[in-house]
């Protein structure tokens, strides 16, 4: 079996990344989802960059990788972001949906849980991807995630499992974007027009945000 066959077997159709409307503007402006390191180095983007996480000191070695999830966003991290330091700011959230073929690209790494957790196993290739779907995943200390009856086949065992994509992901692999309401859809359409970014389908899917604070 190879990665492409595994993707088909599991019914994986999306690799997702959540960001704010400020982050979306940066993505459209440079036609890529960039790693934090590259965002900070870009003179244009660093003025509009608003990180999802305040600090990532524990994974400094991975700052030149973009973080994504398979099929479903990292809800724990999303709620931390939306429920704390971004709560009072004039932002809205959107989900960028990339084609799963990006998992076949060179030097992509797969993690079993959050990249900073002590129980995390990180590796490239089919083995790394398969581990993200193992029956039971150690997160840290006495915490584990486990696949139970009815668990979606296309979701990782731990919702905090990550795809670490080197450098930047081109928006030519961007399939669609999800937002909560028509107003947000209109703003993203305006951003794409303002940056001369090729039009990408924006879908209003409020149910994807129901469990988000």
From TrEMBL:
<dbReference type="GO" id="GO:0016757">
    <property type="term" value="F:glycosyltransferase activity"/>
</dbReference>
<keyword id="KW-1277">Toxin-antitoxin system</keyword>
<comment type="similarity">
    <text>Belongs to the DarT ADP-ribosyltransferase family.</text>
</comment>
<dbReference type="GO" id="GO:0003677">
    <property type="term" value="F:DNA binding"/>
</dbReference>
<keyword id="KW-0808">Transferase</keyword>
<dbReference type="InterPro" id="IPR029494">
    <property type="entry name" value="DarT"/>
</dbReference>
<keyword id="KW-0548">Nucleotidyltransferase</keyword>
<dbReference type="GO" id="GO:0016779">
    <property type="term" value="F:nucleotidyltransferase activity"/>
</dbReference>
<keyword id="KW-0238">DNA-binding</keyword>
<keyword id="KW-0328">Glycosyltransferase</keyword>
<protein>
    <submittedName>
        <fullName>DUF4433 domain-containing protein</fullName>
    </submittedName>
</protein>
<dbReference type="Pfam" id="PF14487">
    <property type="entry name" value="DarT"/>
</dbReference>
<feature type="domain" description="DarT">
    <location>
        <begin position="13"/>
        <end position="210"/>
    </location>
</feature>
